[in-house]
Amino acid sequence: MTTPAIAADASAKARRPALIHHRDFMKLWTGETISQFGTQITNLALPAIAALTLKVTPFEFGLLGTVQFLPFIVLSLPAGVWIDRLRRRPIMIIGDIGRGIMLLSIPLAVALDGLTIWQLYVVGFVNGCLTVFFDVSYQSYLPSLVDREDILEGNSKLEISRSGAQVTGPGIAGFVIGIVTAPFAIIFDSLSFFASAAFVLLIRQKEPTPAVVVNADGSKGPGMRAEIAAGLGYVLNHRYLRSIAACTGISNLFNQIAFSILLLYLLNERGIPIEQIGLAFSLASIGFLIGALTGNRIGQRFGVGPTIIGSAILFGPSVILVAIAPTELTIPFATASVFLGGFAGVVYNINQVSFRQAITMTGMQGRMNATMRFIVWGTIPVGTLLGGFLGGVIGLHATIWVGAIGGIFSFVPLLFSPLRSLMKMPEPVDDGPPDLATPAEITSEAIDETPRTNVASSREPHDKGGG
């Protein structure tokens, strides 16, 4: 029997306007959508320049991916502290403009006949630094832009844009690269960053002033080291967050071992034209779009925790499809791999990122997201470096097998965590002083103590963009 309180709550939720009517969210969403489509060009063009234009070795190729993600090891933790101290919107604008300028240096160098792999390393590293600040600010900004009750819808819409870009982007990128060549195709991504900055600049909602912590004696609050320690402690001591971080970190490590050299493998060993690769990835990315459209409903149907675990279980086997692909069926098998992994990854991200944002107070959002990025994206440069090294030692195909086998077990930390009994998205936590932040406890109403023996039946790793 439905109680009046439950009925009133359901009625209130039904009356909530969709975020499509939230003007400032729409500006954020529009800017991010444009940027995501531009990024698809660089994702294909940058490694193509290294492989086809500069003809680098497998180790040099893997190192390109390493330098792009190295900033997530070096800068994530201090970036989280700064972002909790500052307004996030200006940081996002500066990050977009800076990345656009850096990308423009590549076609300029080609026009002057002076492009080297070292310039690609510099551009990759600087853009990685700017991406650290942008991404942590971005994830921390959303909860202050929309109501907590709308976070899941906001993340779902943002994932739809990212997935839509992944569906059509690689095909468009391959087409554009085929016409103007890879170095000059990057100009389109540069322009997309400038467009994203313009839309974020147009947001009119006033961002809350970050709280300033002052000690009893009037001196400033804890220093950088103490605040970094607070963020690390919050995540590592949190019974839910630490298992999510472990799963995502393991997945990203082995995923990068395999996929850091995948394009090189497809181009050099299987002899597949870049246009076909782009088209195949576009078709495969329909899995991302399906995940974005259904991730919210899957979480509601099977429960947040089982959905997070089930999606992680699906991700590992997807990589094996690339490893076992017969030569004549390389493209179909790779397409199926990206489809399955994309679907599982997006469902995972929608639910676990929204869950993290819901249980974390505003004053800890920056450090929580930065700590998660430090852990889960910090394994990416290690994976890309290992992928490049192993590719030169044991061969590209064998390296893909290493990544595929290791990635199968990434779900294990989640399986033995309390997440398996978490059915509903928890109620938002009360905000408090950032230096007093402690791991949020999940309300009892969010827990279904009934054992679930068929977790994988939810049919559903990684914070790709995303914590």
Give an overview of the whole structure:
With 467 residues, this protein is mainly alpha-helical. It has a single domain, classed as Up-down Bundle (Growth Hormone, Chain: A), CATH 1.20.1250.20. It contains 20 helices and no strands. 57% of the residues are buried. The N terminus is likely disordered.
**Beta content:** under 5%
Number of DSSP helices?
20
| CATH class membership | Mainly Alpha
Q: Main beta sheet, described?
A: none
Q: Alpha-carbon distance between the termini?
A: 39 Å
Percent range of helical residues: over 70%
**Count of individual beta strands:** 0
CATH architecture: Up-down Bundle
* Strand/helix succession: HHHHHHHHHHHHHHHHHHHH
CATH third-level topology: Growth Hormone, Chain: A
Uncertain runs are: 1-14, 431-461
Shape descriptor: globular
What does the oligomeric state look like here? single chain
Q: What is the H level of CATH, i.e. the homologous superfamily? A: MFS general substrate transporter like domains
How many structural domains in the coordinates? 1
- Estimated radius of gyration: 22 Å
Average residue-wise pLDDT: 81
